[in-house]
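Example record

Each entry pairs one chain with its bound ligand, magnesium ion.
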Amino acid sequence: MRYSKRFRVRPGHKVKLADIDPGFHSTHEDEAAAKGEIVTNQEKLRALQYRMYSENKRSLLICLQAMDAGGKDGTIQHVMGAMNPQGCLVQAFKTPSAEEAAHDFLWRVHKAVGGKGTVTVFNRSHYEDVLVVRVHKLVRKGVWSGRYDHINDFEKELTDSGTHILKFFLHISKEEQLFRFKERLNDPTKQWKISESDYLEREFWDDYMKAYEDVLRECSTDAAPWFVIPSNHKWFRNLAVSQILVEYLEALKMEFPKPTVDLKQIGRRYHRAEKDAHRHR
Ligand code: AMP
Ligand code: MG
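Structure tokens for the complex follow.
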């Protein structure tokens, strides 16, 4: 089955995250067995992004959300690693600055969306405003609960304007998170990533799962779908995300623009230049 269908949240569908196995890895035994497909996807992604860039007609926005250590950074490295940096943008959303906090919650988000021909990845996103903000009661319920509609309207405006939106929740288990925290603690190249908030947020795990379930039910639309990606296995996560991007981008049937010059005439000029170059050799 196509991954873009298998992992997509149907609009309005009630998701129970506890029923979705984060350790799922389909029929692939292990990373080695999936390697060929992963590499093929990366090659396809590179070619598809090149088409989008050359076409210069539309853009792609990828939103990544996950619990801490859920694999957002790794996914970005994997997906963007396949693309030409020209035409790519990664945007991380942290605790809002004073200026950002003085505006409506979508203000900083809208201007971070790339223009035609580009691929933008959001490392966290406007969804934090119905996740961390809700869990920690940073605003009243009446405020955050109105935001699902605001988000859907905002995304509708974007998709109507030629921005394709794909949203991924990287689903890991609480045990896998602890395992990754241990890795961070023991690996000097990963220790810089440790933050106090990792452990604080972990205590709110169940509240986050509830908040994510509401996001998935309220904000997965045909034009801007959510996908729940089983992510305990990093290699399967990479396979699934890249596969969905490939399936989705291939369906767009993007074409290279027709040359704006007269190729016959330019061909003649080329041959003259070639002759000239010979003569002066
Ligand atoms: P990290 O992605 O690990 O660098 O952490 C970024 C932090 O910013 C996370 O703890 C997020 O929950 C927090 N954050 C992102 N967006 C918002 C927001 N709109 N309001 C409050 N906190 C946020
Ligand atoms: Mg963090």
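Residues 34 and 80 are 19 Å apart (CA to CA).
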